[in-house]
C-alpha cells in the first residue's frame, strides 16, 4: 500500500530532511498514517511529551497504557524527524565495550548495563509483536573494518564480549569471508552480530503512534513547543497554537528541540545525515551485492551504513554536515561515498535521496535525566535510536510512575557538555568532526 500523505507538503515548520518527498520510507510505508489534530487553545493533562519520534511515542504509549492522561506535541508530523528518516539499523549495545563500562563503573555495573542493552533489544521485538507493527525486520548486522589498524580492536571487541557474556551472538569475520558476504574490496575484516539487523524506520514510528493512541494518548501534530514555564502545579508548555498544563513534562525532541531547554542543548548536538536508495537491482543482483540481506555498518568515524531493501534496492547512508543548511543535491553528496564501497554501481540510478537531523552527545551515550523536578529528557541516541529510543520511552514512563531502577542506570551514564559553551560549541564540534572525517581517508 502506498503511503497516503505527502509529508513534504505538510512539513512546513522545518525541512531538515532536504526533499522529504524523495524518502524511500515515505514511498513504501504500509503502516496507516492518521491525520492528527493541531492543538487549539489550552489543554490540561498529567504528562506532556514533546516530540513525536520513537522516544516520545513510546513514552506516551507506556504512560497511557498505565492509565495516565498524556498529551504528545509534534511540531510537524509523527515520524517526520529522525525516527522516520534513519538508516533503519537495529544495533545491540550501548556504543562502548565491556572494558569501557568496567573502567568507569566496575564489573558488576558493567554487567547490569549489558543486561539493560539486551533488554532494550528484546523489547523492540516485543513492541513489534504486541502491536503487530509492519517493521519488516531482517536479521544480521555486519560491522566492517575499513582500515587494518582497526582489526585488532575489532577482534578484541568480539573476544571481550564472548568472555564476559557467553550468550553474545558475535563472531569475527576474516577479510576473505567478508568479501563473500559483501561485494567490495573496501573492507579488511569485521564481525557479524546475529542479534542485530534492520527494519523499516517509518513503519516503526507510525506503528508506535497507532499503539499510543490505542491506549488513549492524545497526539497533536503541527504543534511546536516554544517555551517551558515552571508553575506551582508542575509545568506549562507554551506552543504556537495553545498552552499545555501538565504535572510533568518529557522532552523527546532529540535534534529538533533547538533552544527549548539549555541543559539539553549543551549536551545534545544536532547533525545532518543523508541517505540514498538505488533503483531495483533484481533479486540476484541484490544477493550478489550483500548476501543474506544483512545490514552493514563500518568503522569510519563518519559511518557508512547500508543494506538491501525488501524490493531489492541498495539503501546507503554516508556523508554528514554539521550546520542547519542542507545540500542542494543530496544525490551528488552521497554518490561518491557509495562508489567508494561499490564502484560497480557507477551506472545505477538513485531513485530516492533524503536527509534528516539526528543528535549526538560527547560520549555517544543517551542523555536520559530528570533535569528539574518533573522535567525529564530522553535524547542524544547517537545512531543507536532504533533500539534505545523506544526502550528509553518505557524507562522514562516507569520513572514517572515510580519505578526508577532502569532509569537510575541510564541517568548515571556520563554525558558532559560539549566544549565551547553556547557560542563556540558548534564551531568546536565542526572542527573536531572534520578532523576525524579526514582521518577516515588515511
Explained architecture:
This protein is α/β, with parallel strands linked by helices and about 450 residues long. The chain has helices at about 5-10, 25-30, 55-65, 100-105, 105-130, 150-165, 175-180, 200-215, 260-265, 285-290, 330-340, 385-400, 405-410, 420-440, and strands spanning about 45-50, 70-75, 90, 140-145, 170-175, 190-200, 220, 225-230, 235-240, 240-250, 270-280, 295-300, 305-310, 315-320, 350-360, 365-370, 375-380. The longest helix is centred in the N-terminal third of the chain and has 24 residues, at about 105-130.
Summed up:
This protein is an alpha/beta fold and 442 residues long.
Q: Write down the domain tally.
A: 2
- Give the structural class: alpha/beta
What gross morphology would you assign? globular
The tally of beta strands, per DSSP, is 17
How far from one another are the termini?
45 Å
Strand content: 15-25%
- What share of residues is helical? 25-40%
* Architecture (CATH level 2) name of the largest domain: 3-Layer(bba) Sandwich
The major pleated sheet works out as: 9 strands, mixed
- Quote the average pLDDT: 90
The H-level CATH homologous superfamily of the largest domain, spelled out, is: FAD/NAD(P)-binding domain
The CATH class of the largest domain is: Alpha Beta
Query: What is Rg?
Result: 21 Å
- By CATH, the topology of the largest domain is FAD/NAD(P)-binding domain
Please tally the helical runs, counting DSSP H or I stretches of 4 or more residues: 14
Unreliable runs, pLDDT <50, ≥5 residues? 1-20
